[in-house]
Write a structure and sequence with these properties.
- By secondary structure, the protein is of the alpha+beta class.
- 32% of the residues lie in helices and 25% in strands.
Length: 239
């Protein structure tokens, strides 16, 4: 059974175990920051709009779930070389909306179109302004050539998407996220669904029930353990 979410009660979200065989839990006409926060806290996220009318947003909690423990990040020789060379300037939260737009415009071989639409960018920008959504960006000669974004709550980072226009740029951003996580106590980076790329970088699948158990512990405090505002003031964190 897939639930139609009530726009008058945006924080009312079904339990993820009620998802169908594809991981879809619910549909809704709108997103909204209160619904987004409530859903992420339950391990549920919006993934796409229906192609047919009424074009509802679809909310998912996949089983299994792809996650990356920061200490398990696999650093290839090419990534290690890129990090050591410090050829990329890494910035935090400098151009959040533009990172989302770049992710939306980034070609995906396994997808015909993007799920990152204008109303999604609008609501995630509001989450960014609330100090919940964050971006890590890579620059070369002052041109943004890679980045990632997601939500940070408690001791977890809910990764949403990444892009690059120069090899290794998005991987360097993920490496930086891993370093930030290890420094400040983020224990888990949510990668949502399996991809060979993420698996090569050290991510692995766990069951939905295990993810939910982890989530309840990692969200004992709702505010992120990372001082994101401090990091955003540093224009160059790493190479």
């Amino acid at each position: 059974m897939v639930y139609l979410l009530d726009d008058e009660n945006p924080s009312l979200i079904p339990h993820p175990k009620q998802a169908d065989e594809n991981g879809m839990v619910a549909v809704s006409d709108t997103l909204g920051v209160h619904r987004l926060i409530a859903a992420y806290k339950k391990g549920i996220f919006p993934w796409m709009r229906m192609e047919q009318e009424p074009n509802f947003w679809c909310w998912f909690s996949p089983d299994p779930r792809m996650v990356l423990r920061p200490e398990n990040l696999k650093v290839s020789r090419s990534l290690q070389k890129a990090v050591r060379s410090k050829k990329f300037e890494i910035r935090v939260d400098q151009n959040f909306s533009e990172v989302m737009r770049s992710c939306a415009n980034s070609p995906r071989p396994d997808q015909e179109s993007t799920w990152i639409e204008a109303d999604m960018i609008k609501d995630y920008k509001k989450l960014h302004e609330m100090g919940i959504a964050h971006s890590i960006e890579a620059y070369l000669d002052n041109e943004r050539i890679g980045g990632l974004y997601g939500l940070a709550l408690g001791k977890i980072f809910f990764g949403e998407s990444m892009f690059h226009t120069v090899p290794e740029a998005s991987k360097v951003c993920l490496h930086q996220l891993s370093e930030i996580s290890k420094t400040y106590g983020i224990a888990l980076i949510d990668c949502q669904a399996h991809t060979p790329h993420l698996e090569k970088m050290g991510a692995s699948e766990i069951s939905r029930s295990e993810f939910s158990e982890n989530l309840s512990k990692l969200l004992e405090q709702s505010e992120s353990v990372v001082p994101w505002s401090d990091l955003s003031e540093s224009s160059n964190l790493a190479g």
